[in-house]
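Protocol step 6 of 9: fold each sequence in the batch and record its structure tokens directly after the sequence line. For illustration, a two-sequence batch is reproduced in full.

Sequence one:
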Amino acid sequence: MITGKPVDHLPAQPMVMMFAAKHVGVEFIDYTKDGRLMAEAQLRTAEDYDIDCLLTCSDPAREVIDIAGDGSIDWFNDQGPAINESRAALSDKSRLKTFRIPDPLGGGRMHDRIKGIEVMYEHVRGELSIVGWIEGPLALAAELRGINNIMYDLIDDPPFVDDLLDFCAEVAMVYATPQILAGADTIGMSDAAASVIGPRLYDRFLQPRQKRVLETIKQKHPDVITRLHMCGNTDALIPKMSELPVDIFELDFPADLTNARGKLGPDKLISGNVSTVYDLLEGPPERVYESARNCHRVCGRKHIVNSGCEVSPLTPPENLKALIRYSRENEP
């Protein structure tokens, strides 16, 4: 966490998106469509719950819409926009040749996130970490092609996958810089689909592109913090993930934290792993507190108290407060 004042406790950075929208009483569709509204919801939620960062992730359709339009998107009032695989932008693979890298400052949905970052920075100016966000190469490929289609393509059409992942990596690299210039001190990269491929395919297709994206960000912006989020059980991928220039490994609750700490080594910063379902959604506050304690015990000093993935909007407020209370009552 980058902060303008010294702290003597663990940082707490739960992934609140739909929870933040509900907390301030706005429809999540409006939260995703208006960067200023997203910024206001993040700012108020961070203040009311004493959260140590502001998150700009919201949905998987920002890059998709700016690249290919919204024909593959379904919109919902009470959840984020979703990719409709039956209308995937790359149902016809030949369309990839017509795609161009979008302008992140061109007035589209990518630009909207940058506007939200500007509002956040105007209010906090270094007092809280601002986490910009990019879709990882496989995540964006799955959003453009459809998750089932891209899984078949990995086996049936490797040259197409190579071309698509290279394009998606380029989009991520282009999108990071204007977010940083707008005030983000951290860039989070989500590659949610990675946990459904094995280590062989990860090594062959995805890890080299993730590395290229993250190395490029580090070369251009040496002081920026990099953060990697891959949903699900990533145990088998940890050895190759450890080679990435990542400052914060955000691990979902199905991942084995002991295995991760052993493979990543003692100096890597690990965030997350508290169950968003069993603990935060369903458990009493005491169980949330103990889960945070267990994660801290395994990770040691290099740890950020966090949920494994997005905090459900149905999470009882007292459970989120218990998670943050653990961070406030304990030193690294």
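Sequence two, same batch, same settings:
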Amino acid sequence: MRKRIFSRPALICGALTSLALIAGCLPQPTSDKGGLNITVYGFSIMKESLEKAVYPGFAAKWKREHGVDVNFTSSFAGSETITNQILQGVSADIAILSIERDASRLKDGGFVTSDWRTLPNKGILNKTPFVILVRQGNPKGILDFTDLAKAGVRLIHPDPVSSGGAQWSVLAMYGSELVKSERQSGGQNKELALQTLRAIWRNVISTPGSAREARTQFETGFGDALVTYELEGLLMKETGKTPLEVVIPKATIFSEHPAVVIDRNVSAAKRPVVDAFMQYLWSDEAQKAFVKFHYRSGIDPTLNQENKHLAQIETEFTIDYFGGWNRAYPEIIEGIFRDQVQRK
């Protein structure tokens, strides 16, 4: 797949055209025998935990307490993609996003008027570290992000235009070098981090639209390595279809995922059940479900002990290391990755 230049104007124009064409085909809320329907748009890797555990758990709870059925309509894609779809008018009630910047975009567009930061853990639902997936036996000898720059390594990496996971990955690789250099010398070696990111990106052979699409390509045998969420590797190992190993970098970022209500779309009649579902997402029951599907809890770290497959991270950092998304996006995703790595 051809690598694309990261261009927001081009993205917006393309989104306007394509969304206009497919608007009639996107999921729409439905009701079932007088029941209620909640429409959730989620970034690509939320599918299993929501559909297999969280939705059924809440539906059973609401039925016990109110005697009313609750149904869910879902749509999953890259975080940037679902945000663009909502901004173009799809009828989502709730969005679960890979990056907080997308929540801010929905607020700026007038679709989110409530403050998600008043929710538990400032609206962060769950989190997960970024890791490297390699083929069984690790034939390329990949032990850290820097090894992805080796000659002959074919790397799959989702597209930062459409994927929040891709933006987390860029921050993981670039930030890892900053953190390690800071620990060694007391200062951030930004030039080394830039050179490393450039060298890694030269080995990228495919840029699919989301983290889940990237996983699918890797599962078909394409590429030698994939940078992705830890939970994707663990889910793949559970299926046993693709022999692989999960490489834990020496320093890596934890992605943090916010949930927001699309206030513009939620009627007064539906608001109670939507708000109840939002509160349920941070309940012990739902948080345990996320941990079962290999997320880290967004509110209670002790719950993570129930999943023995979660890796120990030697040196972890978060978006706060870069000053939050308001700084990380323009300074690193645009100023460094787009302008100094991808375009060169």
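Proceed to step 7 once all outputs are recorded. Observation for sequence two: Confidence is low (pLDDT under 50) at residues 1-33.
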